[in-house]
Amino acid sequence: MSIKMLFPIIMLGLAVLTGLNGAALANVGQPAPWQLGLQAPVSPVAVQGHEFFILITWLMVIITVIVLLLLLYVLFRFSRKRNPVPSKTTHHTLLEVVWTVVPVLILLVIAIPSFRLLYFADRVEDADMTLKIIGKQWYWTYEYPDNGNFTFDSLMIDEETAVAEGKLRLLDVDNPVVLPVDTNIRLIMTSDDVIHNWAMPSMFIKLDAVPGRLNETWTRIPGEYAGQTFYGQCSELCGVNHAFMPIAVKAVTMEEYEAWVEEAQQKFAAVDMPSVTVASAE
């Protein structure tokens, strides 16, 4: 086998072996240059998702190595020189059973933790607060129904401002989401126009915001990340400015969050509630 044929396999192996520890090399809450693995997991869902990623990666490595060894064996054992008279065997019961049963077992190994992770990410039990996320062309709107029902828009800051203030280009916003640590947070998502996707890699969240529909998930940020800002982006092609819909989530202590809520209630507008008409008893 030539070096040219081995090169993609070698690169895949290096990427896999390096990628498993790539999260440790990345900055918390944001991508890092030349990062190959996932971002460092923060929330409980992200931790389980990272473990599932490692499981799948090692399964791929094992399957790739086995297939490679089989190919090398076939090239060696059944070459024209060593096997001048090819076999005319057309059926092999044991072999057919093996290549049917083994993939089924592999799928079961993948399916069980996959379904467990999907259920864990989907359940929203005993939420301490709710954040409503609304996708728009091309920015995000956030509502805090449990804290005065105020709302604000979050838009990407321009490149000149990002450079001048030492912020992250294409990731920092004018009004970041502020969330308390050590709190179970329900996230409800919808859209006002087209389908968007609220993606936060460090929290293992990637959920569509669909017009006329409410999708929900949950997250919890450990207390050790208080003061940390996490970044994400819209991950559903939603129009010409799709690349300019960043997400910034700032984690704070509960005391800081309560102080911010008092300020936000004065700074931002309240959500207009629909008027209710009470029928007359007459």
- Largest beta sheet, briefly? 6 strands, mixed
Number of strand segments: 11
Summing up helix and strand content along with how strands pair, one would put the structural category as alpha+beta
- Distance between the terminal alpha carbons, to the nearest Å? 91 Å
Number of helices: 6
Low-confidence runs = 275-282
Rg from Cα: 25 Å
Per the principal axes of the C-alpha atoms, what is the gross shape? elongated
Task: Throw out a few tags for this protein.
elongated, 21% strand, alpha+beta, 282 residues, six-stranded mixed β-sheet
Task: Describe the secondary structure blueprint for this structure.
Elements lengths: L2 H17 L2 H4 L18 H34 L15 H30 L6 E8 L2 E6 L5 E5 L4 H7 L11 E4 L4 E7 L4 E5 L4 E5 L5 E5 L9 E6 L11 E7 L1 H14 L1 E2 L12
Parallel strand pairs: 1-5, 4-10
Antiparallel strand pairs: 1-2, 2-3, 3-11, 5-8, 6-7, 6-9, 9-10
